[in-house]
Specification:
single chain, 105 residues, mainly beta, Immunoglobulin-like, four-stranded antiparallel β-sheet, four-stranded mixed β-sheet, 0% helix, elongated
């Protein structure tokens, strides 16, 4: 019995720690491959009200597959004013299947 390839995350949500103003808040997580032979990851951050200066860094590159079964991703955020938000970080494959994780600060 077969199934479609998919991506999984090592946690349910990404929670950026509170930090003083103008200091970068960082949280990392892993994306786990479940069935893709080779995939170049892309992402999109969806926030309902305003655009934020959120940085997504792929620590070991954006390629995931048989040789590289999981990749580490860092989310970074810095702000000059006190702010709290919840957004959805979507990763998608070539067939535009999306895999989402929530980002909270």
């Amino acid at each position: 019995m077969g199934c479609f390839p998919r991506l999984a995350f090592d946690r349910r949500e990404v929670i950026l720690p509170p930090v003083p103003l103008n200091i970068t808040s960082v949280c990392s997580f892993f994306i786990i491959n479940d069935g893709y032979e080779s995939l170049q990851l892309n992402h999109n951050f969806i926030l309902e009200y305003e655009q934020l200066d959120l940085s997504i860094n792929y620590v070991n590159g954006q390629s995931i597959g048989v040789q590289n079964n999981k990749i580490k991703v860092e989310v970074q955020f810095v702000s000059a004013k006190a702010i709290s938000f919840t957004g959805k970080l979507e990763f998608y494959d070539e067939n535009v299947r999306t895999y989402s994780i929530f980002v909270l600060h």
